[in-house]
């Protein structure tokens, strides 16, 4: 009985080692979890190699914190092109895997509130908390570019871009969301892109990982991300 138990223990340990080797944990911003990351995973041979992917959706700072604390193998987040600060540059690998735009959307055109309207007026908007990445982008890069004659009036605050897009779709206010996230609703007409009249802002999509020897799944994922960056 003891020999049987020992053999089972060896089998269990080997199974656990295989699961660990074939598992990759990705921390990604909420708005990237919905659209961009699933598209990236389409190119990974998940079924063939028995790879198991765990997605952990969070705000940008939390995604980076999970990477640095080794709770995630790879972080996929947004970055502003003007941001020259590198997080842990000495021990992190970083690649740019795509671009996006933070665009103003609403459920109908707003010609009376366009940038070219000298009379201006009140502009109902959906805002983000200043403590989250997109809230900081809005405060620093978007709202200062508004026509001074326009007066933004916050109607709802949310940290979730999906919720912001929904608020815009039902007419609560103009929301600035990643273009990739709004793509389907823009195509269906549920949302209207107002970036011809209101400011938009370019974003980069980056992937980061801690330098070292990756497990099988992380290595395959990183190779796929490198191919994406080069295409």
State the order of secondary-structure elements, H for helix, E for strand: HEHHHEHEEEHEHEHEEH
Low-confidence stretches: 1-19
Terminal CA distance reads: 57 Å
What is the strand tally? 9
Number of helices: 9
- Main beta sheet: 7 strands, mixed
How much of the residues is beta strand, in percent? 25-35%
Q: Outline, from the CA principal axes?
A: elongated
What class do helices, strands and sheet pairing give? Answer: alpha/beta
Helix content: 25-40%
Mean pLDDT: 82
- Radius of gyration over alpha carbons? 22 Å
Detailed description of the structure:
It is a single chain. With 231 residues, this protein is of the alpha/beta class. The chain has helices at residues 2-21, 30-34, 36-41, 46-49, 60-68, 133-142, 161-169, 179-188, 216-230, and strands spanning 23-29, 52-58, 74-79, 92-106, 121-127, 150-157, 175-178, 192-193, 201-210. Strands 1, 2, 3, 4, 7, 8 and 9 form a seven-stranded mixed sheet that branches. Strands 5-6 form a two-stranded parallel sheet. Helix 6 (133-142) links the parallel strand 5 and strand 6 (150-157). 29% of the residues are buried. Residues 1-19 have low confidence and may be disordered.
């Amino acid at each position: 009985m003891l020999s049987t138990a020992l053999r089972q223990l060896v089998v269990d340990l080997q199974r656990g080692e295989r699961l660990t080797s074939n598992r990759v944990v990705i921390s990604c911003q909420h708005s990237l979890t919905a659209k961009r990351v699933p598209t990236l995973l389409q190119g990974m041979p998940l079924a063939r190699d028995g790879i198991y992917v765990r997605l952990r959706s969070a705000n940008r700072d939390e995604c980076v914190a999970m990477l640095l604390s080794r709770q995630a193998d790879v972080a996929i987040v947004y970055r502003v092109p003007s941001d020259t600060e590198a997080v842990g540059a000495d021990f992190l690998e970083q690649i740019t895997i795509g671009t996006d735009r933070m665009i103003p959307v609403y459920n109908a055109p707003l010609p009376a509130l366009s940038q070219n309207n000298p009379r201006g007026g009140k502009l109902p908007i959906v805002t983000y908390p200043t403590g989250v990445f997109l809230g900081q982008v809005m405060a620093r890069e978007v709202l200062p570019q508004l026509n001074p004659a326009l007066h933004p009036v916050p109607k709802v605050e949310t940290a979730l871009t999906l919720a912001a897009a929904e608020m815009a779709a039902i007419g609560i206010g103009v929301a600035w969301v990643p273009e990739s996230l709004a793509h389907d609703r823009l195509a269906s007409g549920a949302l209207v892109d107002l970036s011809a009249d209101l400011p938009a802002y370019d974003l980069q999509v980056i992937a980061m990982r801690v330098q070292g020897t990756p497990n099988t799944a992380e290595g395959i994922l990183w190779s796929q991300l490198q191919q994406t960056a080069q295409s």
